[in-house]
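Worked Example 4.2. Read the sequence first, then its structure tokens.
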Amino acid sequence: MENIINKDMTIKEIIDVDMELADIFFAFGMFCIGCEMSNGETLEEACIGHGVDVDEIVKALNLALQEK
């Protein structure tokens, strides 16, 4: 399966793919799901703000989707 999630997507776009991906964000200490910024901020921008490695979370998000 090819990767669906990428660093240029907004958090809202990612959650729209699968709401259960919120658990991955929480595991990385990112509680952005209800934040106003989640509609316009890319995953990469959010990761910079939270000190999270964007490549690691992209990998985790795509792996979670593949395991479904």
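Now turn to a second chain, presented in exactly the same format:
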Amino acid sequence: MILDADMTVPPEDLTKFYNAYVNGNGEYLSGTRLVYPLEKESMRTLNILGNKFFSMLLTWILNQKIKDTLCGTKVISKENYIKLKEVKKFLGNIDPFGDFDLILGASKLNLKYAEIPIRYDARVYGETNISRFSHGWMLLKMTVFAMFKFKFI
């Protein structure tokens, strides 16, 4: 289980992920912050638009509905995570954040994917490490790379 330490998602929400996993709803579960209304100051408009853009592209590339590409709340078994590390040979070392590695790797392994809606609050601790423009450019390059690996092979 992965939960960002900034407390934008309450740890109690991990129960939803655990229940979904043990009930067989998915082998790779990812939170989606874009279902419920966002708390004011939780995500900037440009970040929301960027996330929706990358979600649409990855949905098309992977033929799998993805609403939120960058939510920090995720669940995957140790066994499947180890398999994902092997898939990195196919994907290469393109993702410094790990979000796209998990999404693309899970797709390559044909893992059952599910998104769990979460409430996303304003950051309680720390400052963001994300630079909207330079990291957005990096995400775009990763998406184009994925397009060639998954769509145009």
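Notes for the reader: Strands lie at 28-32, 74-76, 113-117. Residues 11-151 form one domain.
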